[in-house]
Amino acid sequence: MADRRRQPKKKQQMTYSWPLAGTYQALSSASVDLIWRKVVNLADVSWHPLILRTNVPYGLVPKPGFIFQAMTRWIPWPIQIFVERVSPGKLLSIRILVLPGVEERVTYRLESTVCGSQISCSVMLRGWLAPLIWSLIRDYAAVLAARLAIAAEKEPPSAKPPIDPCLDF
User: Fold this and answer.
1) For residue range 10-32, what is the model confidence (pLDDT) as tens digits?
2) Which pLDDT score is estimated for 16?
């Protein structure tokens, strides 16, 4: 007969593969185009609860692979931000590298709905410092979409150039 001995159970290690995540949504009366301009204007992050300023020149449009620096509001600590994906008018995905032990991915999605524009912000953390960082930024991440909606609604619509009456047929 086969010897049936109990094999000791292996200890399970805690691994984090994007487990610390949250998706936050907000509705806005501003158009998707106006909100999109606010999201991709990386030179003006006054609406962001955690980022104070960036080194991006005004008017630069983010493209995948673009890397820039930002300063946090809490402490003067430079962070690296990497643009992962851009779908104009719909999606912007960035990766934030704060410390060697943590990596953050933020995805902004915009959709036009019957009630207005829907802003969806997904925040995901990975790394051995992720639980600590998540406990610090969770409340700020929860208001990210709402702060973006408020900032876009406060911004006046851009003035269109006057139509040349000479070309009116």
Assistant:
1) 555 555 444 678 999 999 999 99
2) 45
Query: φ and ψ at 69, to 5 degrees?
Result: -110, 155
Distance CA 139, CA 159 (A): 36
122/30 Cα distance (integer angstroms):
20
Q: Are 72 and 84 in contact (CB under 8 A)?
A: no
What tens digit of pLDDT does each residue of 86-112 get? 999 999 999 999 888 889 999 999 999
Could you tell me which residues come within 8 angstroms of residue 104 by beta carbon, excluding any fewer than 6 positions away? 95, 96, 97, 98, 123, 124, 125, 126, 133
Tell me which DSSP letter residue 31 carries. Answer: -
Q: Which residues pair with 135 in a beta bridge?
A: none
Cα separation of the two ends of the chain: 99
pLDDT tens sequence across 121-167: 999 999 888 888 888 888 988 899 999 999 999 876 664 544 544 44
32-105+116-156: CATH number: 3.30.530.20
Short-list 145, 83, 138, 143, CA closest to 109: 145
Using CA atoms, how far apart are residues 111 and 43, in angstroms rounded to an integer?
A: 23
